[in-house]
Amino acid sequence: MSKDVPLCASAPHHITAAFSPRWTEDRLTTGSVGVGLAVEPRLTICTGTSLGGPVTGTASKVLKLLGVEGVTVSASRALPWGMGYASSGASAVAAALLASALRGVSISRSLQAAHAVEVEDRTGLGDVLAISCGIGVVLRRRPGAPGLGEVDCVPAPPSVSVVTLETGFMSTQELLSSLGQSYYSASEDLVKALDRDFSFDRFASLVTQFTESLGLARWLLGEGADEVIRRTPGLIGYYVKKRLLVLLVERDEAYDAVKHLTSSYRFKARLLEPSREGPSLTLVA
After folding, report:
1. pLDDT digit string (tens) for 186-200?
2. CB of 92 closer than 8 Å to CB of 103
3. Which domain covers residue 47, as residue numbers?
4. Computed over its alpha carbons, how large is the radius of gyration of the chain?
5. Is there a domain that residue 280 lies in?
6. 14 and 141 in one domain?
7. Which residue among 70, 99, 197, 279 is the one 20 to 30 A from 189 at the CA level?
8. Which runs of E-coded beta strand occur in the chain?
9. What one-character DSSP code corresponds to residue 104?
10. Do 125 and 187 form a contact (C-beta atoms < 8 A)?
């Protein structure tokens, strides 16, 4: 495809609920098993049109690795970085898709390059694999890059929205150093349970049990946090990623849920939607 043709690639974000890393000597087979939610708004990068700013960081490295040169690429940043939204992973997937179109290389090869950059930079272990599926609840059954790892998705019901409470920043490296074997063992048990019966309802139930059994909400927000969260209007389930509280709520009570959280805690709440579509390419009119 000509570099002069305006083109955009977009990808959903991803909020991991539980994971267990797998380290090997190969960046392509290094990764994690786990489960999370693909959410929108999406991250978008484009050629031939101006968005929020230039492509930097992970996306820039992916484009360079895949030989995209001599073309101006800009990016939108719909969600903050370092909060647990896998913005780096979303940018890597979008960059890989764009490079695939511009350079005429396979999407599998491009996504594997994106995964390798994430692993090398320690910005993510399984987000590229998860976002490559990118719809609703995402289950990473086998670790590794797309084409080597195994991933599955199940759409969230149309009646479900996602509310997050942003309590602070945390890098992936900080996250990895803060977690212990009890978290990883519980994550593996959760993945095995979902592998036997993978559905949205089972995810919502099991991830809440996982969160409460490990005391993750209390760690994040202090004693009594679980009781406050359980009083959220329309609550379906909840979990914690980094310093981010994630709630699944009934769509018709989402604004009441936001009001409840912000009246209980002085942090920014954000209303999101489960992703209904994986990564995509669009020609700009």
Report:
1. 999 999 999 999 999
2. no
3. 7-154
4. 18
5. no
6. yes
7. 279
8. 7-22, 31-47, 53-54, 73-75, 137-142, 150-154, 160-166, 235-241, 244-250, 268-274, 280-283
9. T
10. no
